[in-house]
Amino acid sequence: MNILAIGDIVGVRAIEYLKQNLWKTRDKYKIDYVIANGENASDIHGLSSKDARDILDSGVDFITLGNHTWNKRDIYAFLDANTEVIIRPANYHGSAPGYGYAIVDVQGWRVLIMNALGQVFMEPVGDPFDAIEYILAREEGNFDISVLDIHAEATSEKYAIARAFDGKIDIIFGTHTHVPTADEQILPAGTAYVTDLGMTGPRNGVLGVDTERTLTKMRMHMPSQFIVADGEIRADAVIFTLDGDKGTGIKRITF
Fold it and tell me: Are 33 and 4 spatial neighbours (Cβ–Cβ below 8 Å)?
């Protein structure tokens, strides 16, 4: 089985790019299932229900989110109504819309997909270690393969989570920083891991954001409404290959 994980989608132009290129990429690499982080897809400021539908229409099978989950209020009902294709971070309060994990069928395999937020340099949320442990214990015996998107700022926190759950989760990938890392690996107990997938968005900016707006914020410390940069769009992604429930390969790609 080949699972493709796509880095943070930045802006609606990036969604259109996926519509034009994702199915060709799926065919080229014989991809069985696609997971993408969509929290910046509505022009950086969260994800609307319309844009969520467009992402799914592009060839993405499942959407994970992050710290901008709540920026678009119409996503609340969408999260509750479409639990089989979209989740939000599990360590938000239990009363929040949607769920932090789902179990989906992929070629007859029961695949548990989880999403969690980091705490380091991020907004206050529940402990991601506790949230992940709770899900694994609650669903023990109900899944064959497990996947985690850890949406976090600090490389050290992502790597610590990967080490803590090495051998307990089959695939762990990081999102949020929009920069692909060159540390794809199979950890000692068998978990396939990469610290950050990167992003799907324009390269002519700062992490997908218009350069001048970013410099205004960073140099002048004045309010600056972020907008998506212009220019060429590319998609960063990682292919995870499993033989049954064992990870046998991990490969970074850009398309």
Answer: yes
